[in-house]
């Protein structure tokens, strides 16, 4: 059974860089036909999709965050990572990683990590 | 971006009840609509994809319907483990967007 688990900095100072990693187990991140996604949920708000990457390294980001976000993949470690620069309090959220599973070329998020809380505060 | 609006935002119900949650898209999304169950501290769970297709392992008391802009998630005979937050999400076009969530509470 596929499992994902997020790890990384829980407290980030304003204007600094947030870095998170998603470790994938029970399956290979190099398998064809999947995307590897980052999402977040700020307190009291709905989920927000941040972006995805394929095992090939091709990535796509939410335009609202594109200027500050980079998603990378390390197939040798079976993990992928999120970097977000110039964070503010508005970036305080629970961050989840998730696998995108495609049917008819359209994804749904079928496996998720439990999430990790990132707080932006001085 | 496509805006997803859920109703109600919260709902109180009893074990054994039938409940319906609605999700409306700001433009047509065909049937590219997914439903998730969210619980604090746990991995979100995919319930329904493509508006009405059950994810493997999801109890049959959950069902989804709709197309275009209007969708529903129905839970028949509520169980205690069903009290959670439910969120719809469109996969029609990027950026993928979610509803604000419906919190289902025990009456």
Written account of the structure:
The complex is a heterodimer of chains A (122) and B (107). Chain A is an all-beta fold and 122 residues long. Helices cover 0% and strands 57% of the residues of chain A. Chain A contains no helices and eleven strands. Chain A has strands at residues 3-8, 11-12, 18-25, 34-41, 47-53, 59-61, 69-74, 79-84, 93-103, 106-112, 116-120. In chain A, the strands form two sheets. In chain A, strands 2, 4, 5, 6, 9, 10 and 11 form a seven-stranded mixed beta sheet that branches. A four-stranded antiparallel beta sheet of chain A has the order 1-3-8-7, with no helix packed on it. In chain A, strand 7 and strand 8 (79-84) form a beta hairpin. Chain A is globular and about 40 Å long. Chain B is an all-beta fold and 107 residues long. Chain B has strands spanning 4-7, 10-13, 19-25, 33-38, 45-49, 53-54, 62-67, 70-75, 85-90, 97-98, 102-106. In chain B, strands 2, 4, 5, 6, 9, 10 and 11 form a seven-stranded mixed beta sheet that branches. In chain B, strands 1-3-8-7 form a four-stranded antiparallel beta sheet, with no helix packed on it. In chain B, strand 4 and strand 5 (45-49) form a beta hairpin. Chain B starts with a strand and ends with a strand. The model of chain B has no long low-confidence stretch (mean pLDDT 97). The interface between A and B is medium-sized, with 25 and 28 residues.
